[in-house]
Amino acid sequence: MAVAFDEMNEPGGEVRQAYHELSRWLKETPPDALEYRRQEAELLFRRIGITFAVYGEAEAQERLIPFDVIPRILSAKEWTLLEKGLKQRVKALNMFLRDIYHGRDILRANVVPDDLIFQNPVFRPEMNGQDVPHDVYVHIAGIDIVRVDANDFIVLEDNARTPSGVSYMLENREIMMRLFPDLFARHRVAPVERYPDELLSCLRSVAPLSASAEPTVALMTPGIYNSAYYEHSFLADKLGIELVEGRDLIVKNDEVFMRTTEGLKRVDVIYRRVDDDFLDPLTFRPDSALGVPGLMSAYMAGNVTLANAVGTGIADDKAIYSYMPDIVKFYLGEEPILKNVQTFRCREPQDLSYVLDHLGELVVKEVHGSGGYGMLIGPAATKATIEAFRDKLKREPEGFIAQPTLALSTCPTCVTAGLAPRHVDLRPFVLTGRDRTTIVPGGLTRVALKEGSLVVNSSQGGGTKDTWVLDE
Length: 472
What we know:
472 residues, alpha+beta, Dna Ligase, domain 1, 2 domains
């Protein structure tokens, strides 16, 4: 594996321009003062109640996502490139999703294989020929970005269903501003606080034509036992909208209403944090107690907007991800600004042969996997684990892709022994409404807190950092 790109320091040890002030501040700040503020940050997070649960753990208790007090810093020039690339990618994703549920030009052109769509468990035939308001399928996208050198940001993953983590982006900034006003005073940091306003504006802009001039938006949650429930309640509060569960909603005459103390009130837009399978027991899983009977009929009648649209899971598929450069070129006639990681499709015999011969060097992922589960990191795996994966690949090659082990960039991180480099990724949040796409400058930086680890997922022991984009 190549040497990781150090975001703070040049190879010769000189501090990069964006980190000059932070470097000076760190030299002036005693280690015990930094540790004191780290503990204070943890206490604040506990008081606020920011927790998550890891499904499948024996104790499964709520726990904090560790927060690192050293910010990750991007220059305005770096952010401009990222922003342009993210908008291009999400535009292509929306065009792709409309096409596969309508004309299917991309399939007829043999750019993407038919079976990757029609045999995909998250393809929704119910959406065939179904128009969605303003052709926006992915209203909220979380695009996972990694950095490998000074010039290149690479997309690791597309999250087009119900991307999470934005509450941590907002809370991280609030905590940093409270604990480190002196450090903020030395920088011109672009704000992220407008995200809730941008999100509400985005959701209202895609309301059905039959909606009132002031459309009613609600956030639909699976309930308090969901691992991201904190985020659901946090966002509903920030947006000033109702947080509802399936049992709070009712469908009458193909319109959706929520029960209130003043009677039924029509809902025009539902920001749903419930997966497709559980949305409507009359259309999808009949055993779902989380959904709303008749919701899909109201949706198909054009009387309610669901964000994100039903059927967007196709864009999350890691096999589809491997075709994204071709998808961008097909719909936009442009070269992708943000590259993909080189990806081997194990469904293809030549790629499978290569992967089986190089398992100890590669990262192997399930095409429908998420959260860092079900994957093999070859260089860190035991021989027994590698052999077990080899058997899996031979049995179900179509269920996996493989990628080189990337040397994710590193940022200075506060650890027990002081400051040390740790690997990071970035999840910016892209909002697409009726007539514009917006991205608040920054996003959620996730950090692998274990020395040498490349796994940044909170469910696998990762933490988060505040992301500063310098407003130069």
